[in-house]
């Protein structure tokens, strides 16, 4: 019976090819090819083909503290079917950003993407480290963007790649397919046994994960693990007053890139049932503005948002307006079901979503939210 990786399922990673209970390194092992047991970007080589790309790539995001400091923080966003992943460059006096093995793979794959040579591109499997000895499969992915940017590694500026991965609409990946790629003897037959979603990608049709099938998110999907660095960010926000938290949320939305918008915070004394309002503009060539009302509520981690909280915002929406509800906590399944089933034009942002926005805007540091930015926001109130 073939081994299969299924989205959101956990697998034992005990760093052993020979032990039967291992469901990670040993599953990838095929003759003299495999992914090894260290590194965030790993790859398996072809056994019978000389190529400048590997047979497939495995990327791992660590969600737990590790004894080796990692300055790069990745983002997994199932709502958009996207993963934002940093390359493996670190501050090094003699090695540049493209001298690291993982970054070389990213660069070579991106060149094939730009040349539209999709049949030669290796599939990417993304996992996250749930805890020591356990990984979670996040999906079969393809590289859709690669940018070179700066980041700060322990106070030192470092160039590194940041890639955007699209999660394909495929619930499971048969390891036998990966082994077939490793043992393939001719590039012309490389993709004969590939799943349909991968064959569609080769033909130019990238079918991303169906977000509606995952619309009801669990508590764990909406909140970072307790005692994690991400949870500490939310704890820092919880120490703010309600009006300070509203100001921070408004400033975060103002700073979002690639979106034209106008956002205004309401007066605390008479907000009319909402905390901020504004417009998002879809840029050229559409030129269309969307009005919205928003609420920002600082709830404790164990105090979820109930239907009655969202209903208050929905009742204030006018024709053509949509709502934004932001909380440091999470939403009950019933709250999410009512928004979906009643077709409410409301987007729900949980604690993990706030963390992802802070990361995307590079507003985090080792000790929490960047102090200089936070002080500037509160000073403007």
Automatic annotation (TrEMBL):
Domain Restriction endonuclease type IV Mrr: 238-357
Domain Restriction endonuclease AspBHI N-terminal, first and last residues per copy: 20-205
Keyword entries, A-Z: Endonuclease, Hydrolase, Nuclease
Biological process terms in GO annotation: DNA restriction-modification system
Pfam families cross-referenced by the UniProt entry: Mrr_cat, RE_AspBHI_N
Coiled coil start-end: none
Source domain of life: Bacteria
Stated name of the protein: Restriction endonuclease
């Amino acid at each position: 019976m073939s081994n299969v990786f299924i989205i959101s399922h956990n697998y034992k990673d005990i760093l052993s090819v020979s032990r039967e209970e291992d469901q990670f390194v040993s599953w990838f092992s095929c003759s003299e090819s495999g992914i090894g047991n260290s590194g965030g970007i790993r790859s398996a080589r072809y056994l019978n083909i000389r190529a400048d790309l590997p047979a497939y790539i495995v990327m791992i995001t660590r969600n737990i503290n590790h004894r080796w400091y990692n300055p790069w923080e990745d983002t997994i966003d199932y709502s958009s079917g996207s993963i934002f992943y940093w390359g493996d460059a670190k501050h090094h006096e003699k090695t540049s950003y493209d001298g690291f093995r993982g970054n070389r793979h990213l660069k070579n794959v991106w060149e094939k993407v730009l040349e539209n040579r999709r049949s030669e591109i290796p599939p990417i499997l993304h996992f996250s480290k749930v805890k020591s000895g356990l990984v979670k499969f996040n999906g079969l992915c393809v590289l859709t963007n690669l940018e070179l940017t700066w980041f700060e590694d322990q106070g030192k500026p470092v160039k590194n790649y940041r890639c955007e991965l699209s999660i394909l609409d495929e619930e499971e990946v048969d390891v036998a397919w990966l082994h077939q790629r490793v043992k393939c003897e001719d590039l012309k037959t490389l993709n004969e046994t590939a799943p349909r979603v991968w064959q569609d990608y080769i033909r130019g049709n990238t079918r991303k994960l169906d977000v509606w099938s995952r619309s009801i998110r669990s508590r764990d999907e909406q909140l970072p693990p307790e005692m994690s660095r991400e949870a500490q960010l939310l704890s820092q926000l919880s120490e703010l007053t309600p009006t300070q938290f509203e100001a921070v949320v408004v400033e975060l939305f103002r700073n979002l890139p690639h979106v034209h918008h106008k956002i205004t915070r309401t007066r605390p004394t008479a907000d009319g049932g909402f905390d901020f309002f504004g417009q998002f503009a879809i840029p050229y060539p559409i030129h269309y503005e969307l009005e919205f009302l928003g609420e920002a509520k600082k709830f404790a981690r164990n105090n979820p948002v109930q239907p009655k909280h969202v209903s208050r915002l929905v009742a204030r929406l006018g024709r053509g307006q949509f709502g934004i509800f932001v909380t440091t906590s999470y939403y009950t399944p019933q709250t999410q079901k009512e928004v979906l089933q009643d077709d409410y034009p409301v987007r729900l942002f949980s604690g993990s979503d706030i963390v992802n926005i802070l990361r995307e805007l590079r507003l985090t540091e080792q000790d929490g939210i960047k102090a200089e930015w936070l002080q500037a926001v509160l000073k403007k109130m």
